[in-house]
Write a structure and sequence with these properties.
The longest helix has 15 residues. The chain has two domains: about 160 residues, Rossmann fold, CATH 3.40.50.1260; about 200 residues, Rossmann fold (3-Layer(aba) Sandwich). The chain is built from 13 helices and 17 strands. Helix 6 packs parallel to helix 8, helix 6 packs parallel to helix 12 and helix 7 crosses helix 8. The strands form four sheets. Strands 5-6-4-1-7-8 form a six-stranded parallel beta sheet, with helices on both faces. Strands 11-10-9-15-16-17 form a six-stranded parallel beta sheet, sandwiched between helices. The protein is an alpha/beta fold and about 400 residues long. About 30% of the residues lie in helices and about 20% in strands.
């Protein structure tokens, strides 16, 4: 575990906090401020501890190393001021109080992890705190390089929680441990599947990614989404599961339609039913929901990432909603990630019944896939080997 912000004396110091304010903005209006709100506890903690200045640094979008007004963080400074109920200075690192720097990716040195740019960032502050788990899988100047140039570095409250809960899921889960994976593609989660198979007691698959496994079994999948180049990988995963005597579950029935469109007629078929014809599978069916619910109910630890169907359309959202309710009912540790999964627990009204909701996106998947995250690894090093 990396050192926490709570282990560092912040009084009278200038504290640079790497946050993840990569939020949707259109015409200066913020669409979803979840990521901004998730860093408020760390920002407020630094202020309460008497930090002289709290300098916030983030990226936004992909401006390709040069200034672009479309990706400016200026609208976030105004919104953050409202959330904190105090002034937020924009792009003036020498100011006291709360400061939000302009988009880090306006400088080409950020994504190149340029030592000179990292040193310039480090020179702004006495203490560096990384609270941007969502960017921890990138070895950039503000997430990895900067640690080489500061005397004191640590993890923010959000980062610490992400590492604690995701780490607990992988290293010491209470059992039974059930993993639920959905979404469109096996390729997006193949590493996660391979890393979880030796660790979990049951693995439940949903979403379009199930159809690559079905086709690998020789089933007729109609026009459902399939990654033909991963059929062998799907067979290998199932073989791994059999070797471990793991409960590996795929849907037994599904909701199908001629095309992905709201209001289109739907049917519920058994997955072996060859009358699927030119239809495509778009959600798990009621028998699968009941089956998955019963397995989830036995769990002491659950990790869930990815929807069970095309969650954006109500006709294909039932599987995801019901899984959300089942996970929320677990009397144990529940960890979810992925935008659709987060939206599902919100729509089901059970957000407050989930132990930990990860906003890490790709970082969460890489962590669960067994990869070392540069932004986390940098914080676990002995800072004495670096120059101040």
């Amino acid at each position: 575990m990396p050192r926490s912000v709570k282990d560092i004396d912040l009084r009278g110091k200038r504290v640079l906090i790497r946050v993840d304010f990569n939020v949707p903005i259109k015409n200066g209006v913020i669409g979803d401020d979840t990521r901004i709100r998730s860093s408020l506890p760390t920002i407020q903690y630094a202020l309460e501890q008497g930090a002289k200045s709290v300098i916030l640094a983030s990226h936004l979008g992909r401006p390709k190393g040069k200034p672009n007004p479309e990706y400016s963080l200026q609208p976030i400074a105004s919104h953050l001021s409202t959330l904190l109920n105090r002034p937020v200075t924009f792009d003036d690192p020498k100011a006291d109080g709360v400061v939000l720097l302009e988009n880090l990716r306006f400088n080409p040195g950020e994504e190149k992890n340029d030592p000179e740019f990292a040193a310039r960032l480090a020179a702004m502050a006495d203490v560096y705190i990384n609270d941007a788990f969502g960017s921890a899988h990138r070895a950039h100047a503000s997430t990895e390089g900067i640690v080489r140039h500061v005397k004191e570095a640590g993890a923010g409250l959000l980062m610490a929680a992400e590492v604690e809960y995701l780490g607990r899921v992988l290293a010491a889960p209470d059992r039974p441990f059930v993993a639920i994976l959905g979404g469109a593609k096996v390729s997006d989660k193949l590493e996660v599947i391979q890393n979880l198979v030796p660790r979990v007691d049951a693995l439940l698959i949903g979403g379009a990614m199930a159809y690559t496994f079905f086709k690998a079994r020789g089933l007729n999948v109609g026009k459902s989404l399939v990654e033909d180049d991963l059929l062998d990988a799907a067979r290998e995963v199932e073989e791994m599961a059999r070797t471990r005597n793991l409960r590996f579950e795929l849907p037994v029935d599904h909701v199908v339609a001629a095309k992905l469109e709201a209001g289109i007629p739907t049917m519920t078929l058994a997955v072996e039913d060859r009358t699927i014809g030119d239809r495509m599978g778009l959600d798990i069916g009621p028998k699968t929901i009941e089956r998955y619910r019963s397995i989830i109910a036995t769990a002491q630890t659950v990790t869930w990432n990815g929807p069970m169907g095309v969650f954006e359309i109500d006709a294909f959202a039932a599987g995801t909603i019901e899984v959300a309710k089942a996970v929320a009912a677990v009397d144990g540790v529940t960890v979810i990630g992925g935008g659709d999964s987060i939206a599902a627990v919100a729509k089901a009204g059970v957000t407050d019944r989930i132990t930990h909701i990860s906003t890490g996106g790709g970082a969460s998947l890489e962590f669960l896939g067994g990869r070392k995250l540069p932004g986390v690894e940098a914080l676990t090093r002995d800072n004495q080997q670096f120059s101040a």
